[in-house]
Amino acid sequence: MWPFICQFIEKLFRETIEPAVRGANNHLSTFSFTKIDIGHQPLRINGVKVYTENVDKRQIILDLQISFVGNCEIDLEIKRYFCRAGVKSIQIHGTMRVILEPLIGDMPLIGALSLFFLRKPLLEINWTGLTNLLDVPGLNGLSDTIILDIISNYLVLPNRITVPLVSEVQIAQLRFPIPKGVLRIHFIEAQDLEGKDTYLKGIVKGKSDPYGIIRVGNQIFQSKVIKENLNPKWNEVYEALVYEHPGQELEIELFDEDPDKDDFLGSLMIDLIEVEKERLLDEWFTLDEVSKGKLHLKLEWLTLMPTADNLDKVLTSIRADKDQANDGLSSALLILYLDSARNLPVSYILMDTFCH
């Protein structure tokens, strides 16, 4: 299958990722891939997990441990600056979810399949010529990770690749499903964090300027920075849509803000199945990957209701908690499907003609 998978990847790069890169920054408006060759070394599937509980009987959910290390030949250019760069090798490691749905009573038994990563995969690209490209005026403010982030985000939930296998399947509902719920994250405070700032060439250890990065799929929130405090109080609230469970997790990383490179202060990963089961969690969590530090979170699982019967009650509750979030707390979710358009005006490109 690998040669045909490569054809699909090339189509994905040209039709999805290339326009996304162009739209990410004005200086990248003439970005294009001039050659895409993924190579002959296929990806490996190191493990498969099949979910048998808490799933719809008309679907099969698989989690695949994906590992790809390949020698590629991918060339790109930005015509506006007459710049070219390339990729000579690429690595990608992560958990890809494959959903087979709906199951049907006729061949091929599966109506469609959807592919996506539950969280941002580890993606490493060995560039050639990128340093020269980033030296161009207008591009020198960009980092070499901007294209990496765009590619990663297009593969991470809620973005998904959906392939219909029969004509009558409702493809829009599979590509843009209704969220399973909303996670309200009260990012409250931390205690006993590590002091990363040092003085007198490291002899005196000081405090830290901590802040947090919160991720649910490709939804990312960043807290404010608390200056010189090992017991910071943020008291901030974020709301994230949850599209998949089991399998999705809340990821939190704490950092100490520095002028050069921010120092790591610890991380936390929480399975959203537990939050949904409890509905409300208000706990101190011990930070991982560091010697000390705790984080106080309050997590609420909010279920989506099909009618507005309880809206007044929800609004009353939100008014009582109106000081908890800068932009207010949500009471409802609007889902809009753009179906089609008709009789659009024709756009003309005017070109000057030169005659000798």
Q: Give average pLDDT, whole number.
A: 84
Number of continuous helical runs: 6
Hey, roughly how much beta strand do the residues contain?
Answer: 35-45%
Low-confidence stretches: 350-356
Largest sheet: 7 strands, antiparallel
- Write down the secondary-structure element order: HEEEEEEHHEHEEEEEEEEHEEH
> Could you tell me how far the N terminus lies from the C terminus, measured between alpha carbons in angstroms?
55 Å
What would you say this structure looks like, in words?
This protein has six helices and 17 strands. The chain is globular. It starts with a helix and ends in a 36-residue tail after the last helix. A hairpin with a 4-residue loop joins strand 3 (60-78) and strand 4. The strands form four sheets. Strands 1, 2, 3, 4, 5, 6 and 7 form a seven-stranded antiparallel sheet that branches. A four-stranded antiparallel sheet has the order 13-8-17-16, covered by helices on one side. It has a four-stranded antiparallel sheet with strand order 12-11-14-15. It is α+β, with helices and mostly antiparallel strands and 356 residues long. It folds into two domains: 1-165; 181-321, Immunoglobulin-like, CATH 2.60.40.
